[in-house]
Design brief:
single chain; mainly alpha; 6 helices
Length: about 150
C-alpha cells in the first residue's frame, strides 16, 4: 500500500493545525483569554463534529461496547487537548507562529519517539535507532535556525 495519501493527509493536517493556531491566537488576543478561546473553539468544533458524525456514521456502538471502554479514555485525551491548545493560543502571540509551532512540534516528536520506543498507550513499539536520534537533533537545529532568523 502506498504511503503517499497518508503522508499528504498528515501534511495537510499539520497545515490546518498551524492555521487553527494562527486564527485562534488572534481570537485569544481579542478575547484576552486563551481558555475562553479554547471553550469557543471546542463548542464550534463540537457542532461541526456532531454534523460530520450525523452525516457519516452508519453504525453507533452499543451500550455494552461503550460500557467496556476504560473510564479514563473518556476524558484524558480531551484534558491534554484543552491544555495543549490553550498553551498554543497563549504562546503564539508571545513567540510568533513559526517558533511556537516548531517548538510544539519538537515536543511532539521527542515525546512520540520515547513513547514509540517503549510502546506506550498499547501501540506497536518502534525501537530507537540512530536515524531517529539524528532526526531529533536535526529538528533541534532547525528550531534554533527558525528562532534566530
Amino acid at each position: 500500500m502506498s504511503q503517499s495519501a497518508p503522508i499528504l493527509l498528515a501534511f495537510v493536517g499539520g497545515v490546518f493545525l498551524a492555521l487553527h493556531g494562527g486564527f485562534n491566537s488572534q481570537l485569544s488576543e481579542q478575547l484576552k483569554s486563551p481558555m475562553l478561546t479554547s471553550l469557543v473553539a471546542y463548542i464550534v468544533s463540537t457542532v461541526i463534529a456532531f454534523l460530520a458524525v450525523t452525516i457519516n456514521t452508519r453504525h453507533f456502538p452499543s451500550f455494552y461496547q461503550l460500557k467496556d471502554i476504560p473510564y479514563y479514555l473518556w476524558f484524558s485525551g480531551a484534558l491534554f487537548s484543552v491544555a495543549g491548545i490553550g498553551l498554543y493560543y497563549y504562546t503564539i502571540p508571545k513567540l510568533g507562529i513559526s517558533t511556537m509551532i516548531s517548538i510544539g512540534l519538537f515536543g511532539q516528536i521527542l515525546f512520540s519517539v520515547i513513547a514509540g520506543h517503549f510502546g506506550w498507550f498499547g501501540l506497536p513499539t518502534e525501537p530507537l535507532a540512530y536515524k531517529k536520534v539524528f532526526g531529533v537533533l536535526a529538528m533541534t537545529l532547525g528550531i534554533i535556525l527558525i528562532k534566530n532568523t
